[in-house]
Amino acid sequence: MRLSNKVAIITGGTRGIGYAIAEAFLREGAAVVITGSRQETAERAAQQLRDAMPEARVSGIWPDLGSLASVREAFQSVVETYGRIDILVNNAGVSEATAFENYTEEIFDRVMDINVKGIFTASKAATEYMIPQGSGVILNTSSMVSFGGAGAGIAYPTSKYAVNGFTVTLARELGPKGIRVNAVAPGITETDMIRALPKELMEPKIGRIPLRRFGQPEEIANAFVFLASDEGSYITGEVLRVDGLSSN
Ligand code: NAD
Question: Which of 99, 106, 206, 210 is packed most tightly, with the most Cβ within 10 A?
């Protein structure tokens, strides 16, 4: 029970890596609030977790991550219910593999709005509680593309390099206030985001990964548990690769 009595918010917790983080945090004794883009998906995922773990303290919220006012209002409701916010996981993200010639301003803005502005709004709203508490942990989901770029889809790797910059900078700024900020950079992980890509594109990548397989969401979630818990108490500003040594 490495997270007992902790209250955690996980953005994009309705499926994939975020859902696996929610399961792992609940198993470690945290109360968990997952955010989704819609009420229906957020509430359904929370119910699914309660069905699997009847003791679990878990609920859903659905703020617009691109709007600080909306996130503030939702996080205020979390504090009214659970009393505090100890851990924020900025995991919501979208990927868009369009070639540069066809990349539009709208796609660029959409990816940056969720992947970058979303971590600003959520971190801003959460630290309004963490700073007065004198403690807190912020964890961001980066990606292996934040080290080597990608073959297409310009905004996605751009956004993940920004996540790393945000992580290190906020760690420096908030360390003196008792708040640790870290990121996890997954390699290719078997979620809907990856299943949506053509098989012919994905299968050849396996041979280039030294561990010869894609990651599972649970394996990424383990790194989040470690960094969220007191086992990571002297780690801040780190971007931890969990990628089988990656393929790019
Ligand atoms: P996924 O598509 O299965 O899940 C994405 C989550 O983000 C969902 O819960 C979704 O509801 C949420 N989300 C998307 N748009 C949103 C919005 N506008 N508002 C609120 N929530 C929104 O993807 P995943 O693979 O689980 O990805 C989770 C994170 O992991 C992302 O940040 C992604 O960039 C990162 N990542 C994934 C992989 C991979 O191979 N799957 C690799 C590296 C990094």
Answer: 206
68 lines ligand 1 (CB under 6 A): no
**Ligand 1 atom closest to Cα of residue 188:** 40
pLDDT tens per residue, range 170-213: 999 999 999 999 999 999 999 987 888 888 988 999 999 999 99
Ligand 1 atom closest to Cα of residue 190? 41
Q: What is the DSSP letter of 230?
A: G
The DSSP-derived string for 161-187 is: HHHHHHHHHHHHHHGGGTEEEEEEEE-
Q: Is 91 in the pocket of ligand 1 (CB under 6 A)?
A: yes
The residues assigned a catalytic role are 156
**Element holding 130 (H helix, E strand):** helix 118-133
Buried b (16+ CB within 10 A) or exposed e, 95-114: bbebeeeebeeebbeebbbb
Structural element, H or E, at residue 7:
strand 7-11
Judge if the beta carbon of residue 65 lies within 6 A of ligand 1: yes
